[in-house]
Write a structure and sequence with these properties.
There is one protein chain. The protein is of the alpha/beta class. The protein has helices at about 10-20, 80-100, 115-120, 125-135, 140-160, 190, 195-215, 235-250, 270-275, 290-295, 305-315, 335-350, 380-395, 425-430, 470-480, 490-495; strands at about 1-5, 40-45, 50-60, 60-70, 165-170, 220-225, 255-260, 280-285, 320-330, 350-355, 400-405, 415-420, 435-440, 445-450, 455-465. The strands form three sheets. It has a nine-stranded mixed sheet with strand order 11-12-10-9-8-7-6-5-13, sandwiched between helices. A four-stranded mixed sheet has the order 1-2-3-4, with helices on one face. β7 (about 255-260), α9 and β8 form a beta-alpha-beta unit. α7 (about 195-215) packs parallel to α8 (about 235-250) and α7 (about 195-215) runs parallel beside α16 (about 490-495). The longest helix has 22 residues, at about 195-215.
Length: about 500
């Protein structure tokens, strides 16, 4: 599509506004205007007392436009006023053009509860926060309620957080097979053949990361082993991994230790026994759906019965918390199937239930099919999301973290629900960037976070090699570094001024 901006408006922000209504759109500089190419025009003018913005959406002979003026105020900083004026204009024009307003209004970020949290911290109160979200950001009242509720929970859970705490993320980027909706690359037998070599270096990486954390004088509060599917590891490999963690820290003192078991077809009695023995307090057993035909559609090599068996194994292990994931909007799914899946999951009474919205990825097999392209049923997905939130609230599950992904069906959200006291704190720390998270393994991202005396956050990201073969090839650069590329420890120490 074509995006034209006249005046002072961040181009990336303008693109995110466009993507709400044109998901997956590209903004090629050489795009030529034609009747099949959508065009969005912004005109932004700085006034003495506020920001004026005009937005127009054009496609072929159809054109809808709107304008908005937002005055400066003590509530909103100048740059937010600029975004709000442009967002308002775009939203009003889009309503006329498409006949609806996105349920999240003009909120474009990954973390829709962030604005609500800022209002609550500034003392606006719950009711005023909801009203501001609905009136100033055009949120559907139900979304305003949800965002405020998540923000309240996050603030309550983190208000006594120790600033010296941190977390460690360990990456196992391998899966037994590749799901049709996934763009992940590590399911091939060639990739799986690297596992032992990968694990040998990962153990060294873990020890290096924990040593770096110790040298900084920080306390590891949570450890999260994610993927991929970490339980792709066999029992011997899993024991090697978990014993490496136990050799670096007293796991009994961790607030939380998560292992993503993920795929039910990778869970065994022995693996769960080992996990419990080495201090794991939380596992994820993720069916995504309990409709067997939908599981087949997405390339999952397990059935609903396999999930129930795996869940029972995890429960018998005595591990404290179990999370289950469901995905709304999968190919072949509908409200009847989803509601049945949710109700059957709820009957198990897991401590955590996470409801994701299907996210269409260009590199996934679903986008490469020779048959008809998959077209998501947005109204059905929205109905499923709303049903899940009502049902879980009635069963005493509270939403405690939330995020959104680009190209999610209907621009809908992913929400983690938990019974009181079982919230996954790592999810909150990671999503809200409240403290440093140190990463080990291929694809891991270290997020270094520091706050100054005024509460202003400073951040730096350190990216590990993305793919296992790159990680194996470049491992010495991570640990030892060279003149051109400092080691992991040097990069971390530089950030903290050590």
């Amino acid at each position: 599509m074509i995006l034209n901006i006249e005046g002072n408006l961040n181009r990336y922000y303008a693109q995110t506004l466009c993507l709400i209504y044109f998901p997956g759109a590209k903004f090629a500089e050489d795009e030529v205007e034609s009747e099949n190419v959508p065009v969005v025009d912004f005109v932004v003018v700085d006034k003495e007392d506020g920001i004026f913005s005009h937005a127009a959406i054009r496609l072929g002979d159809k054109k809808c436009e709107a304008e908005c003026f937002v005055p400066f105020s003590e509530i909103f900083p100048k740059e937010r006023v600029r975004k709000m004026a442009s967002g308002h204009a775009m939203t009003i024009a889009a309503k006329e053009f498409f006949g609806y307003i996105s349920p999240w209004g003009l909120l474009t970020g990954v973390r829709p509860a962030k604005v609500a949290a800022q209002y609550l911290e500034d003392g606006f109160g719950v009711m005023k926060t909801r009203k501001l979200l609905a009136t100033e950001y055009f949120l559907n009242p139900k979304k305003a309620f949800l965002a405020t509720q998540v923000a309240q929970t996050e603030l309550k859970l983190t208000k006594n957080m120790d600033k010296n705490d941190c977390s460690v993320y360990i990456s196992i980027p391998f899966c037994p097979t590749r799901c049709a909706y996934c763009s992940f690359v590590s399911a091939s037998q060639k990739m799986l053949s690297m596992l032992d070599d990968y694990l040998t270096l990962l153990v060294k990486d873990i020890k290096n990361v924990f040593a770096t954390v110790k040298a900084l004088g920080k306390r590891v509060a949570t450890v999260y082993i994610g993927g991929g599917t970490p339980t792709t590891l066999n029992a011997r490999q899993l024991k090697k991994l978990l014993s490496a963690v136990a050799s670096c820290t007293d796991v009994a003192l961790l607030d939380e230790f998560t292992l993503e078991a993920g795929r039910p077809d990778t869970i065994t009695e022995e693996k769960m026994r080992i996990a419990k023995e080495y201090g794991v307090t939380r596992v994820s057993v993720n069916p995504q759906t309990l409709a067997d035909n939908v599981l087949e559609n997405i390339g999952r090599r397990h059935t609903a019965d396999d999930f129930f068996k795996a869940y029972e194994i995890a429960k018998r292990s005595g591990i404290r918390d179990i999370n289950t994931d469901l995905i709304v909007g999968l190919p072949g799914d509908n409200f009847k199937k989803f509601s049945s899946s949710l109700e059957r999951i709820m009957a198990l009474e897991p401590s955590n239930i996470t409801v994701h919205t299907f996210c269409f990825k260009r590199a996934a097999a679903l986008s490469k099919s020779d048959g008809e392209p998959f077209v998501p049923d947005v109204p059905s997905a929205a109905k499923c999301i709303q049903y899940s939130q009502l049902m879980l609230a009635n069963a005493s599950y509270k939403p405690y973290y939330m995020y959104r992904q680009k190209n999610a069906v209907g621009n809908l959200e992913n929400v983690g629900f938990a019974k009181a006291g079982s919230e996954c704190m790592y999810n909150i720390y990671m999503m809200e960037e409240l403290h440093s998270i140190f990463g080990a393994g291929a694809g891991a991202v270290t997020k270094l976070v520091e706050f100054d005396e005024n509460g202003e956050r400073r951040m730096k990201r350190i990216f590990a090699p993305k793919y296992p073969y790159e990680y194996l090839r470049d491992f010495d650069k991570i640990v030892k570094g060279n003149e051109e590329n400092p080691s992991y420890k040097q990069k971390v120490f530089e950030f903290f001024g050590r």
